[in-house]
């Protein structure tokens, strides 16, 4: 029995390494301020990394993208080896290496929005935290960024009956998110010689919902297998234009938002089925029970940032309000969660990630404040 267990661990490690090495590092370049006609390497990128063990055939949407800062790289610097994970040196033992992991939106079903949608924000964050521009007073170092793909529910405007990765329902979206997070953590912890690592989990729209679902005791609440348990939970969750109470919106929309109810109900049924009890159970602002307990037991002083664009025409501000009220009720019970609301002029719903600058500004502040 012990021998089989050991072989299983070794196989998983080899499978992880093979999956990680299957994607090459490519340079992310920006204009060089010192030489207007030249470029410099800002970071290194890996795209479409499969996060399932090799013996389980990964589907096209079961992948993730990664960006890491390029340190002391010139335009002629060769990319790192595909099997490597470049990590910053951390001689100062007080400094913390911070990873940001992003989950895209799209109402659990839009195939036109994928992991690479985090690219504009990732680029802005790498600019902010390059060694030449990072604030010397910061105790934290941006180690890297990742963005997850996950299987989707069917979309009536993009039918794909032969695509099993575009015809699933809850909890399969969350299963993939937890699988991707677990894979990423295994790779990071095996490659980084320090215990001073923290994660920020962030998402846009339904990606914000999935971010919270990942810490809502998902193994018991959503009947997911124990191998999806995260070895390290996020220190902060940052939601942008998030969906936090679908049943509440559908049954009692804010004034002026009544016309949004039919499409909301359509994608909610598509993602979660027809049982409205499930809608309430899966959304963080309407779920019953002590779903914060497991997270806060591990992460004392955890932080939640709720970002909302003032120009958002698809998600009402009231979704942020109901989530803030839910978390503040927990604070009244003595829960150690800090809640902050950030309202920005970031444009319409998808412009938040399309431009990336507002998203990067909020996330960059959280990195430095952890």
Written overview of the protein:
The chain has a single domain (43-69, 95-369), classed as Alpha/Beta hydrolase fold, catalytic domain (Rossmann fold, 3-Layer(aba) Sandwich), CATH 3.40.50. Helix 2 packs across helix 12 (357-369). Strand 8 (302-309), helix 10 (317-332) and strand 9 (337-344) form a beta-alpha-beta unit. The protein is 34% helix and 21% strand. The termini are far apart. The chain has helices spanning 2-21, 119-128, 172-191, 206-213, 218-221, 246-251, 261-272, 276-282, 293-298, 317-332, 351-355, 357-369; strands spanning 26-32, 35-50, 63-69, 96-103, 140-148, 197-204, 236-240, 302-309, 337-344. It has a 9-stranded mixed sheet with strand order 1-2-3-5-4-6-7-8-9, sandwiched between helices. The longest helix has 20 residues, at 2-21. By secondary structure, it is α/β, with parallel strands linked by helices. GO terms for molecular function: arylformamidase activity. One of its GO terms (biological process) is L-tryptophan catabolic process to kynurenine. Pathway: Amino-acid degradation; L-tryptophan degradation via kynurenine pathway; L-kynurenine from L-tryptophan: step 2/2.
Provide the descriptors you would attach to this structure in a database record.
single chain; 370 residues; alpha/beta; Rossmann fold; nine-stranded mixed beta sheet; 12 helices; 9 strands; disordered N terminus
């Amino acid at each position: 029995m012990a021998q089989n267990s050991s072989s299983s661990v070794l196989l998983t490690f080899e499978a992880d390494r093979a999956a990680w090495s299957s994607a090459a590092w490519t340079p992310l370049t920006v204009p060089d301020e010192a030489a207007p006609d030249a470029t410099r390497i800002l970071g290194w990128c890996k795209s479409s990394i499969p996060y399932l063990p090799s013996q389980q055939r990964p589907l096209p949407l079961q992948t993730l993208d990664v960006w890491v800062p390029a340190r002391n790289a010139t335009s002629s610097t060769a990319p790192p080896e595909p099997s490597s994970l470049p990590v910053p040196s951390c001689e100062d033992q007080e400094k913390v290496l911070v990873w940001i992991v992003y989950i895209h939106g799209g109402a659990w079903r839009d195939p036109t929005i994928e992991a690479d949608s985090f690219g504009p924000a990732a680029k802005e964050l790498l600019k902010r935290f390059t060694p030449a521009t990072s604030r010397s007073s910061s105790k934290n170092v941006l180690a890297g960024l990742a963005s997850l793909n996950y299987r989707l529910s069917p979309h009536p405007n993009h039918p794909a009956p032969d695509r099993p990765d575009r015809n699933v329902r809850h909890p399969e979206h969350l299963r993939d998110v937890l699988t991707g997070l677990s894979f990423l953590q295994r790779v990071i912890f095996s490659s980084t010689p320090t215990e001073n690592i923290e994660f920020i989990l962030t998402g846009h729209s339904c990606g914000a919902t999935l971010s919270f679902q990942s810490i809502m005791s998902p193994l018991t609440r959503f009947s997911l297998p124990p191998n999806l348990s995260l070895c390290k939970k996020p220190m902060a969750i940052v939601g942008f234009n998030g969906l936090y109470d679908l049943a509440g919106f559908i049954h009692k929309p804010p004034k002026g938002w009544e016309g949004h109810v039919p499409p909301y109900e359509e994608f909610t049924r598509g993602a979660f089925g027809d049982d409205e009890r499930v809608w309430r159970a899966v959304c963080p602002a309407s779920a019953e029970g002590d779903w914060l307990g497991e997270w806060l037991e591990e992460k004392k002083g955890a932080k939640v940032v709720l970002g909302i664009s003032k120009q958002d025409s698809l998600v009402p501000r009231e979704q942020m309000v109901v989530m803030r009220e839910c978390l503040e009720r927990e604070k009244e019970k003595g829960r150690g969660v800090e809640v902050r609301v950030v309202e920005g002029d970031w444009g319409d719903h998808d412009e938040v990630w399309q431009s990336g600058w507002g998203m990067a500004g909020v996330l960059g502040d959280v990195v430095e404040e952890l």
